From TrEMBL:
Gene3D superfamilies, sorted: Glutaredoxin (3.40.30.10)
UniProt entry keywords in alphabetical sequence: Signal
First and last residue of the signal peptide: 1-21
Protein name according to UniProt: Thioredoxin domain-containing protein
Length: 145
């Protein structure tokens, strides 16, 4: 009973101080909606893109091609290095790990992605780090590589 009275007195005192200071109890109480998940990024892409790689990446995005990746995947990083930094920014990259940036885990599960990277081109799936020439052929790209 003493604890209840003491906590009531403390709360009343806090509210009095808060009203004098011009703040409300609601602004002091933290609001949490969902637990935070640390967002992880992979290694940065360091290679420079060729104009042909940029054009291929733009073509892949235009036809709706996606590459499913995980931030920790070394093969995914190697695939990105093949394109180069500028071209990678043009790709539609789907992060499958919940700890990655902007994860789309449900999409990866729905698409039954089992390995990384996996390319989706015209409804077909191609696992593994693909040469740019192969991606051009699979996507019916007409430019130079």
């Amino acid at each position: 009973m003493k604890f209840h009275q003491a906590s009531s007195n403390f709360a009343a005192g806090f509210l009095a101080i808060a009203s004098i200071a011009g703040i409300s109890a609601l602004t002091v109480t933290p609001q949490f909606t969902t637990p935070a998940i640390a967002q992880e990024t992979g290694e940065p892409v360091t290679t420079k893109s060729t104009p042909n790689a940029i054009a291929l990446a733009k073509h892949l995005r235009k036809i709706g091609a996606k590459v499913y990746t995980a931030y920790w995947c070394p093969h995914c990083h190697d695939q990105k290095e093949r394109f180069g930094k500028e071209a990678v920014s043009q790709l539609d990259i789907v992060e499958c790990d919940l700890r990655g940036v902007n994860p789309q885990r449900e999409l990866c599960i729905a698409k039954r992605i089992r390995g990384f990277p996996t390319w989706e081109i015209d409804g077909n799936f191609y696992p593994g780090n693909q040469p740019l020439e192969n991606l051009a052929r699979l996507s019916k790209y007409r430019g130079d590589i």
